[in-house]
Structures are given as C-alpha cells and as structure tokens.
Amino acid sequence: MQSGVTITETKEKTSTELEGTWDVVVFDDPVNLMGYVTKVFEKVFGYPRERAEHLMMTVHLDGKALVWTGTRERAELYAQQLQSYQLQASLEKAG
Asked: 21-57 pLDDT, tens per residue?
C-alpha cells in the first residue's frame, strides 16, 4: 500500500466522439412565456414564426423539443445562445 500517492486518470475526447450529428434539445420551464420562447427560436435559429411556434408548443406540451440537429460545434453554440436567453437547453449525440 502506497500512502500519499494519488492516481488520476484523464480521458481526452477523441475526434470520433466529437464527430457526427448532435441534437439541441430545449426543455419546458415554468418561467418563460410562450411568446418569448417563440421569439428566441426566431432570433437564434432564424426560423419563420410558424416553425418557431410549432417548436414552442412541442416544448410546452411534451416537456421538451428537438430544435436543431447538426455539427457538435454549432450545437454547442446554439445551446449556449439559448441558455443566455434563460432557456433550459442541452445537446445530445444524435442517434
């Protein structure tokens, strides 16, 4: 037994873990108004009002909605932008 020795393992993300398709998911919350969420989707993604409203209603009725799919880098950017508007958003590996 060795005392005073700490073994630390680090796991680096490989390029294969970062590649592929990623989903941006928005979750329902009791704070933001439906009209506000619609406007955020229009602003962040450039979605037309009809699509933004449809996604907002999906979030409202189902508790969450897949709002965008694409590269990891872009998904991270969108998730951060949505969070800056106080929306609960995350990214998940698509599949």
From this structure: 999 999 999 999 999 999 999 999 999 999 999 999 9
SS3 content of the chain, % helix, strand, coil (to 5): 45, 20, 35
Q: What is the CA radius of gyration of the chain?
A: 18
Per-residue tokens: 7: 């073994």
At 54, the amino acid letter reads H
DSSP 86: T
* Cα angle 94, 67, 95; round to 5: 10
Backbone dihedral angles phi then psi of residue 76, each to the nearest 5 degrees: -65, -40
Token couple for 59: 């979030």
* pLDDT tens column, 63-72: 999 999 999 9
The fold of the 20-93 domain, in CATH, is Ribosomal Protein L30; Chain: A, (3.30.1390)
pTM higher than 0.90: no
